[in-house]
């Protein structure tokens, strides 16, 4: 088997008496979408934060591209190619769509902030940004102020910014939230093609999207992974149905 891109070993995290992550071990393999599902408060976001670098586990390790990155911060992991998307607040709302994408490309190069006039004249940065906008279908909005985009378009811009990092793996926390049926369908189609470029660890409540996209699904309940398997295996797992999916059948 090809080596996984991302591995967590026995991650534990408590907030006071609450154990939000209990011995979580999972991996993300080349070319796959691995979905992480579970009821509200199960600890999905807490796990993603520990993988991205924003939150330090109490115990356990995170390996990315064969390297132990547990002690590295978010920026260092991002420079290695670990892209986390859908932190909407990361977009500068008063800047144009192109400016946001150029900023992403500048960050990918490890550059420090310079005046936009100079940055926008940098052909490499500009073409990386334009190519990313083109891929998500936002080229026509390049000159639009980001704050004027629809919710769905902002999500696509987040993906474009992540693409400028030339990521080796994506962490996505509820990308479909608030998109509506059409928007989710469009984003589902886009993510489907994205897995060949870089595998995706996907936290998502939209079960249609999860079952349409995921090569593997892990189910988290009370901070613990109770099952990992294909969509068919997870659908039929009695423990999963009882703990989670069963809620939807009622
Ligand atoms: N910084 C924090 N301090 C204290 N408790 C926290 C903190 N962050 C998360 N928690 C708690 O940890 C548990 C897991 O939260 P988390 O947000 O990871 O769950 P989730 O599965 O992502 O939920 P949702 O599906 O609702 O987004 C919850 O009980 C939450 O209240």
Q: What's the CATH architecture name of the largest domain?
A: 3-Layer(aba) Sandwich
- Share in helix: 40-55%
Mean of pLDDT: 87
- Shape by Cα distribution: globular
What is the count of structural domains? 2
Q: How many extended strands? A: 10
What does this structure look like?
- With 250 residues, the chain is an alpha/beta fold.
- The chain has 2 domains: 164 residues, Rossmann fold (3-Layer(aba) Sandwich); 78 residues, no CATH class.
- Helices cover 40% and strands 24% of the residues.
- The protein has 10 helices and 10 strands.
- The strands form 2 sheets. A 6-stranded mixed beta sheet has the order 6-7-8-3-9-10, with helices on both faces. A 4-stranded antiparallel beta sheet has the order 2-1-4-5, covered by helices on one side.
- Strand 1 and strand 2 form a beta hairpin.
- Helix 3 packs across helix 5, helix 3 packs parallel to helix 6 and helix 5 crosses helix 6.
- The longest helix is centred in the last third of the chain and has 15 residues.
- The model has no long low-confidence stretch (mean pLDDT 87).
- It binds adenosine-5'-triphosphate.
- Adenosine-5'-triphosphate binds next to strand 2 and helix 1.
- It holds the Pfam family ABC_tran.
- GO terms for molecular function: ATP binding; ATP hydrolysis activity.
- Keywords: ATP-binding, Nucleotide-binding, Transport.
């Amino acid at each position: 088997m090809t080596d996984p891109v991302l591995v967590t070993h026995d991650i534990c995290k408590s907030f006071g008496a609450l154990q939000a992550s209990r011995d979580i071990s999972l991996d993300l393999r080349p070319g796959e979408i691995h979905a992480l599902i579970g009821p509200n408060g199960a600890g999905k976001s807490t796990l993603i934060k520990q993988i991205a670098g924003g939150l330090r586990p109490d115990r356990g390790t995170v390996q990315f591209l064969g390297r132990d990155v547990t002690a590295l911060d978010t920026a260092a992991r991002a420079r290695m190619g670990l892209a986390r998307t859908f932190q909407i607040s990361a977009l500068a709302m008063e800047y144009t769509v192109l400016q946001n994408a150029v900023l992403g490309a500048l960050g990918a190069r490890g550059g420090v902030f310079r005046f936009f006039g100079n940055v926008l004249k940098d052909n490499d940065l500009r073409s990386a940004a334009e190519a990313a906008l083109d891929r998500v279908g936002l080229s026509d909005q390049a000159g639009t102020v980001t704050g004027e985009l629809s919710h769905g378009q902002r999500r696509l811009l987040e993906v474009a910014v992540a693409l400028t990092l030339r990521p080796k793996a994506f962490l996505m926390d509820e990308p479909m939230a608030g998109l509506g049926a059409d928007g989710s369908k469009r984003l589902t189609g886009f993510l489907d093609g994205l897995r060949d470029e870089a595998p995706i660890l996907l936290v998502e409540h939209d079960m249609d999207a999860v079952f349409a996209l995921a090569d593997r699904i892990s189910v988290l309940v009370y901070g613990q992974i109770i099952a990992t398997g294909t969509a068919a295996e997870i659908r039929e797992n009695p423990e999963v149905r009882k703990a989670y999916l069963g809620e939807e059948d009622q």
